[in-house]
UniProtKB/TrEMBL annotation:
<dbReference type="InterPro" id="IPR020422">
    <property type="entry name" value="TYR_PHOSPHATASE_DUAL_dom"/>
</dbReference>
<dbReference type="GO" id="GO:0008330">
    <property type="term" value="F:protein tyrosine/threonine phosphatase activity"/>
</dbReference>
<dbReference type="InterPro" id="IPR029021">
    <property type="entry name" value="Prot-tyrosine_phosphatase-like"/>
</dbReference>
<keyword id="KW-0904">Protein phosphatase</keyword>
<feature type="domain" description="Tyrosine specific protein phosphatases">
    <location>
        <begin position="1"/>
        <end position="54"/>
    </location>
</feature>
<dbReference type="GO" id="GO:0033550">
    <property type="term" value="F:MAP kinase tyrosine phosphatase activity"/>
</dbReference>
<comment type="similarity">
    <text>Belongs to the protein-tyrosine phosphatase family. Non-receptor class dual specificity subfamily.</text>
</comment>
<dbReference type="InterPro" id="IPR000340">
    <property type="entry name" value="Dual-sp_phosphatase_cat-dom"/>
</dbReference>
<keyword id="KW-0378">Hydrolase</keyword>
<protein>
    <recommendedName>
        <fullName>protein-tyrosine-phosphatase</fullName>
        <ecNumber>3.1.3.48</ecNumber>
    </recommendedName>
</protein>
<dbReference type="GO" id="GO:0017017">
    <property type="term" value="F:MAP kinase tyrosine/serine/threonine phosphatase activity"/>
</dbReference>
<dbReference type="Pfam" id="PF00782">
    <property type="entry name" value="DSPc"/>
</dbReference>
<dbReference type="GO" id="GO:0043409">
    <property type="term" value="P:negative regulation of MAPK cascade"/>
</dbReference>
<dbReference type="InterPro" id="IPR000387">
    <property type="entry name" value="Tyr_Pase_dom"/>
</dbReference>
<dbReference type="InterPro" id="IPR016130">
    <property type="entry name" value="Tyr_Pase_AS"/>
</dbReference>
<dbReference type="GO" id="GO:0005829">
    <property type="term" value="C:cytosol"/>
</dbReference>
<feature type="domain" description="Tyrosine-protein phosphatase">
    <location>
        <begin position="1"/>
        <end position="76"/>
    </location>
</feature>
Length: 105
């Protein structure tokens, strides 16, 4: 999933469906990575957020390792400005709260 596409879709008020064959490993990994980047949630918080909405997720160990690396890369690129509240960041956090629970495939 290209992050710019997802962001542009949300700006336009559209929804984006992220899917893979079973919805257990690949698509949850992409959604977790997206949340980490665009809402500044930690990997653990992003995982818990997705797991609460689709209980069967279970990213494979390789993907989990990549998420750990992704979190480290995001932290390495963080600046002081990233830690200050901004309108865009607050909007994205509000959007995350609006996602309905219990989406069933």
């Amino acid at each position: 999933m290209h992050y710019a596409f997802r962001y542009e879709a949300r700006q336009a008020g559209a929804r984006v469906l992220v899917h893979c064959q079973a919805g257990v490993s690949r698509s949850p990994t992409i959604v977790i990575a997206y949340l980490m980047k665009h809402t500044r949630m930690t990997m653990v918080d992003s995982y818990k957020y997705v797991k609460a909405r689709r209980i069967i997720i279970s990213p494979n160990l390789n993907f989990m390792g990549q998420l750990v690396e992704w979190e480290a890369a995001l932290q390495a690129n963080k600046t002081e400005a990233d830690c200050k509240p901004c309108h865009e960041c607050q909007w994205q956090r509000q959007e995350v709260k609006k996602v309905p629970n219990g989406c069933q495939a």
